[in-house]
Amino acid sequence: MLACHKDGMNTIDGGEYDGKTLQEVLETEGLEKAAGTHCLRFPYFPVLIKLIDAYDNLSVQVHPDDAYARRVENEFGKTECWYVLDAADGAELIYGFKEAITKDDFKNAIEAGTLLDRLNRVKIKKGDLLFIEAGTVHAIGKGALIAEIQQNSNCTYRVYDYGRLGKDGKPRELHIEKAVDVSVTAPPKYAVKPFGEEEAHGGYVFQLLTKCDLFTVEHYDVGNSVTLSADETSFCHLLIIDGDGTVNGRAAKKGDSFLVPAGFGDCTVSGKIEFLLTKI
């Protein structure tokens, strides 16, 4: 939904840059003008936003932090958050460990195929929020529809894959040594809920989902209209997750993605419409 990475790239729809990639826009306008001054501390466009619809249990993974990823992979680390858009009855996510274990116990459990017994399973419902710091072992379970906001990185270590085979007929590669190096083998530090409480305002309801030094994510449920402001410090990205209306006069519906450049100023969202706003 928002991608400026060598493994995937958004294309602009409409306007001056119609048909151009997001990277081409950044190269023309400059990172500061298009993305904002808060983004200048990153050597790349800072976030990647995905929708993940899990038809089956996805592999158990862990991501390194910046220091490890830069040293070992020449890539950046990955901290992310998950917002649950929908969940089938009984859908679960894996989020850290049930209890603290040693690194040796972690490695032995991977090799013995008993890792799932040690991991923390979380029943999920629409509206849940999980903040997943680099080093947190995690997985998306069957029946979960997730909005994922993450550092702009594709650095992932696979820990467990349910014995599935790849296209070559062999089990998919696990990254055991690296996973053991970077994992925090303890229960998660954060509760499975948004960071802030809902706040009712005239025409809309606001909630802070998460805030860290890498990104801030907010939830808006609009019944009439809300005016946002994109100042020179950061772009605003709007991911429409329900309803329909307009974003600064342009038609918007569930599944649409809007990038409001830094310095754009006021932007009005109108209609009965629900969206996630990400900024730096």
Descriptive tags:
280 residues; eight-stranded antiparallel beta sheet; four-stranded antiparallel beta sheet
What does the model show?
By secondary structure, the chain is mostly beta strands. The chain has 5 helices and 19 strands. Strands 12, 13, 14, 15, 16, 17, 18 and 19 form an 8-stranded antiparallel sheet that branches. Strands 3-10-5-8 form a 4-stranded antiparallel sheet, with no helix packed on it. A 3-stranded antiparallel sheet has the order 7-6-9, with no helix packed on it. Helix 4 (103-112) packs antiparallel against helix 5. The longest helix has 10 residues, at 103-112.
Distance between the termini: 17 Å
User: What is the number of strand segments?
Assistant: 19
Element string (H = helix, E = strand): EEHHEEHEEHEEEEEHEEEEEEEE
Backbone shape: globular
Let me know the average pLDDT. 95
Uncertain stretches? none
Helix/strand structural class: mainly beta
The total count of helices amounts to 5
User: Which percent band covers the strand fraction?
Assistant: 35-45%
Measured as a percent range, the helix fraction is 10-25%
A few lines on this structure:
By secondary structure, this protein is mainly β.
Write the SSE topology.
Blueprint: E1 4-5, E2 8-9, H1 22-29, H2 31-35, E3 47-53, E4 60-62, H3 66-73, E5 80-87, E6 92-97, H4 103-112, E7 119-123, E8 129-132, E9 138-140, E10 144-151, E11 157-160, H5 176-182, E12 199-201, E13 204-211, E14 216-222, E15 225-230, E16 236-247, E17 250-253, E18 257-260, E19 265-279
